[in-house]
Write a structure and sequence with these properties.
Shape of chain B: globular
Number of helices of chain B: 12
Radius of gyration of chain A: 20 Å
Shape of chain A: globular
Oligomer: heterotrimer
Radius of gyration of chain B: 19 Å
Distance between the termini of chain A: 12 Å
Number of strands of chain B: 2
Structural class of chain A: mainly alpha
Order of helices and strands of chain A: HHHHHHHHHHHHHH
Helix content of chain A: over 70%
Order of helices and strands of chain B: HHHHEEHHHHHHHH
Number of strands of chain A: 0
Largest sheet of chain B: 2 strands, antiparallel
Helix content of chain B: over 70%
Largest interface: A-B, 43 and 46 residues
Distance between the termini of chain B: 49 Å
Strand order of the largest sheet of chain B: 1-2
Chains: A mainly alpha (about 325), B mainly alpha (about 290), C alpha/beta (about 250)
């Protein structure tokens, strides 16, 4: 079979090819595309922790927002280099993720949920008050960004931001993909299904959860940093419960534990929001809420699962063809 | 000095009463049905908006509040049958997500009907006055809330501790499997409890509108407060939610008066530390299961 | 000739739930390769003992030595890593995961590379192959691709045991392996138990007397948290006190 036309490769390459094509044809919609990719990265981080490891958190925006503020503050006070800034923001967020993780991951259920909400709320209220550092209610302004790699300026048209975000998303996607299929990823899936069984085979459950929580926080922090770079602004909303809720909605809409579920969910959400906002200010909340309810009640695997049957049919067809001499 | 302290106490307790009335329904349904209901604030919001709409049309305040309570309960009945019943078997995650969906829908509905700006409840003139309570004059409204809250707490306490329904409720909270095993109609129990819980939320939303102002994001803004009351008090614990609501009300008020700058996140920090120390809450119901 | 050191040694193990003493100063030795049956009426504390040994329940007092090293202070997962495995009375499987992977994950944990996030291809394939071998040993190779929850109950039970054996434990605790298996299929479990590796020390708790008397070379009888008697099956069957307390009430 001709390698270039191997359906698997086509399937996996297409979202990235589409993203590249979009760069050239998007026109005024380029920054929207960047937004979508940032949300995809954020939703991907949530998939690791919520989808695979089964950690039910409503406070993941804490890491997204922390990364955003970290990147913003660093660019104002320390260095405008976006590469150093991204790495530093990610590292700092990872440290926060680790510290909070070791404190709360021994709890479960609503207690854990409440603890994640408490962390999120603490950060939100602190950012609200610490005017000197964060700009408080008005948000963080005055970010100064050096050109990326010394060459690519962050312009108003957002070309650099788009490609930077695309590159980081691609990297994180590869890491996630590899991780999810690794023994580590499988053990996390096992922990989600049955922690008792995993303990019975000697899995150090708590440590695994801390590890994935830290990694996921780091990835969310990267998404936050990219969002700061894209708009050169950080608003309080990055630390809001609403943001935490939206990213969870995106993930479930698209389908958790499916490689491209985060992609589909973020895309659909942003598209729906953008179009419905033009119709009326509240329609999209209605549609999204309704979709969410419908997905939970009727479509367990998210919207990606709608593809299951047609994809299986295509696979069967191709296998049938391959067997022909 | 003493008058200052007493004022803070009165302010805190009256705020706590609102939190209690709204949250007691949530703690009972979460403890009984084991469902994480993030949409509870929506029922409080619904009660508030219905009461507000009626008072703005000239209907008597007390009647409006009563109707709002019943309406919120009716809304609860519809939601229980349509949305919550399928959730009992599904895990935490499904419950969290579906109820978030309900919150979104309720925010959209309210914005569509009432607009995005704060929507006041028109109170009768005697409630808008100041009353002389000896050491100072104090808003009649807050005294009214204290009265209604206290009466509600008393009635609930009598029902839960001293009635057959209450006994069944407590048994089902302590040990749901056993309750089903002895033939209790658990579905009916769930439905009645949920309806009462939502009705109480509506009552709290209606009379509490002077403290928790009505706007479309109400359901999302205040759900964290209600959850704090429930989880810090102990899921399913009537006494726990009362104590937690009072504590939260007083701490919040003190924060507003004294530590204005650090108030909000000190509160959440306190919740954080407390939950790590007592994961099951302050006064969790004794679990036999 | 002196007997070899016991692989599992329990001394003075106590546990109280409030006023109820569910384990009273239990003393137990398990030799390498032992086949020890643990029986007793309901409420005797058999499952509690298993939970105390595995660490799911913390003991109030007493010591547990595995191959001479104390494990009573260790968390359950640490005890597994030292070589103490168990099966559960109710199947505790990864419902969505296929049987082969369920065993492979256990092997990965055993080989200590389950934490690997990268460069795992060859090692994981080796786990899958070994998993297939274990499935073959237990006669369930044909269901390797099916999710655990799709398997009939008896095969789930076999999978439960296969996973424990795949850990290559030194001590294996079988908690009512025959539980829930219809009488018509019980022989499958019996066969599998007979063919378990002879170097593993096995403690089996059971209500199925046929199984216990057939499988165990020694039997311990527990009553109300205490060890009443220990001996070979024929002694236990003939012991009047044991009869009075347990067998005398009629066979299950």
């Amino acid at each position: 079979m001709n390698i270039a036309l191997d359906p698997k490769i086509v399937w996996h390459a297409s979202p990235w090819l589409l993203a590249v094509v979009f760069f050239f044809v998007a026109g005024g919609y380029l920054s929207l595309g960047t937004q979508v990719m940032i949300w995809i990265l954020f939703a991907l981080s949530l998939d690791l922790v919520l989808g695979y490891a089964g950690i039910v958190t409503l406070g993941h925006a804490a890491y997204f927002g922390f990364g955003a503020y970290a990147a913003g503050i660093l660019s104002i006070r320390l260095t405008g280099d976006p590469l150093i800034g991204l790495v530093a923001a990610t590292a700092l967020t990872a440290a926060l993720g680790f510290a909070t993780g070791i404190l709360i991951l021994h709890t479960t259920g609503v207690t854990f949920l409440m603890l994640t909400l408490a962390i999120l709320s603490m950060l939100y209220e602190y950012a609200n008050r610490a005017n000197d550092l964060t700009g408080g209610d008005n948000g963080l302004q005055g970010m100064q960004l050096d050109p990326l790699l010394g060459q690519f300026e962050f312009t108003l048209f957002g070309e650099t931001a788009y490609l930077y975000t695309l590159a980081v998303l691609f990297l994180c996607f590869l890491v996630s993909w590899r991780l999810v299929h690794s023994p580590f990823g499988r053990s996390l899936d096992g922990i989600r299904q049955n922690p008792r069984r995993m303990r019975a085979i000697g899995t150090p459950v708590w440590w695994r959860l801390v590890a994935i929580y830290t990694l996921s926080a780091a990835m969310a922090g990267s998404a936050g940093a990219l969002s700061a770079y894209a708009t050169r602004f950080v608003g309080l909303s990055v630390l809001s419960l609403f943001t935490s809720g939206i990213v969870a909605v995106m993930l479930i809409l698209g389908g958790a534990r499916r490689i491209y579920g985060a992609f589909l969910g973020a895309l659909i959400y942003i598209v729906v929001q953008d179009f419905s906002a033009k119709v009326s200010p509240y329609l999209w909340e209605f549609v999204v809420g309704g979709l969410l309810i419908a997905v939970v009640l009727f479509l367990e695997g998210g919207l990606m699962s709608l593809f299951d049957a047609p994809v299986a049919a295509v696979k069967r067809r191709l296998r049938g063809e391959a067997r022909d001499p | 000095m003493i008058s200052y302290a007493l004022t803070i106490l009165l302010d805190g307790v009256s705020f706590g009463m609102v939190l209690f009335i709204i949250s007691v329904g949530l703690t009972i349904t979460m403890g009984l049905m084991r469902v994480v209901n993030l949409a509870h604030g929506s029922f409080a919001m619904a009660g508030g908006y219905i009461a507000a709409m009626m008072t703005q049309r000239g209907i008597d305040y007390h009647l409006a509040v009563a109707i709002a309570t019943v309406a919120a309960g009716a809304l609860g009945a519809i939601c229980e049958v349509l949305f919550y019943r399928p959730l009992y078997r599904k895990g935490d995650l499904a419950q969290v997500l579906l109820t978030i969906g309900l919150v979104f829908v309720s925010i959209a509905a309210v914005t569509a009907v009432f607009g995005a700006f704060p929507y006041p409840v028109i109170m009768p003139s005697y409630l808008q006055q100041l009353v002389d309570i000896g050491f100072r004059t104090y808003p009649a409204y807050r005294l009214f809330v204290l009265g209604v809250g206290g009466a509600t707490a008393l009635i609930l306490w009598i029902v839960i501790e001293h009635s057959l329904f209450g006994a069944r409720l407590r048994a089902a909270v302590d040990n749901p499997r056993m309750a089903r095993g002895v033939g209790m109609n658990v579905n009916l129990l769930f439905l009645i409890t949920f309806v009462v819980g939502c009705g109480l939320a509506g009552l709290g939303g209606a009379i509490g509108a002077g403290m928790l102002s009505l706007e479309p994001t109400y359901a999302l803004k205040y759900i964290v407060l209600f959850l704090v009351v429930v989880i810090v008090g102990g899921e399913g614990s009537f006494k726990g939610s009362f104590v937690a609501a009072m504590a939260l009300g007083i701490i919040d008020t003190m924060g507003r008066y004294f530590f204005h700058d650090i108030a909000s996140y000190m509160l959440y920090a306190a919740v954080f530390v407390l939950l790590l120390w007592r994961p099951k809450g302050l006064l969790p119901p004794k679990s036999v299961a | 000739m002196t007997a070899p050191d016991p692989i599992l040694s329990v001394r003075g193990l106590c546990k109280n739930f409030g006023a109820l003493a569910v384990a009273q100063s239990i003393e137990l030795d398990l030799q390498p390769g032992a086949r020890l049956g643990l029986i007793g009426p309901n409420g005797a504390g058999k499952t509690t003992l298993v939970n105390l040994l595995t660490g799911m329940v913390a003991a109030d007092a007493g010591t547990i030595l595995l191959d001479g090293a104390p494990i009573h202070g260790l968390r359950p997962e640490a005890r597994v890593r030292r070589g103490l495995a168990r099966t559960h009375q109710i199947n505790t499987l990864l419902a969505e995961t296929c049987a082969r992977e369920g065993v492979a994950i256990a092997i990965a944990e055993r080989e200590r590379f389950a934490w690997r996030m990268f460069r795992y291809g060859a090692a994981w394939r080796a786990c899958l192959e070994e998993a297939d071998q274990h499935l073959r040993d237990f006669g369930i190779a044909q269901v390797g691709d099916r999710a655990a929850r799709q398997l009939p109950y008896g095969e789930q039970r076999l999978l439960e045991i296969a996973i424990a054996v795949a850990l290559r434990p030194r001590v294996l605790l079988l908690d009512e392996p025959g539980a829930g298996v219809p009488a018509s299929e019980a022989h499958v479990i019996h066969d599998v138990l007979d063919r378990l590796p002879s170097d593993i020390a096995i403690l089996i708790t059971e209500h199925d007397m046929d199984l216990v008397f057939r499988f165990a070379r020694e039997i311990v009888v527990m009553v109300q948290g205490r060890v009443l008697r220990r001996g070979v099956p024929s002694e236990i069957a003939a012991d009047p006190e044991v009869r009075a307390v347990y067998l005398g009430r009629g066979k299950h």
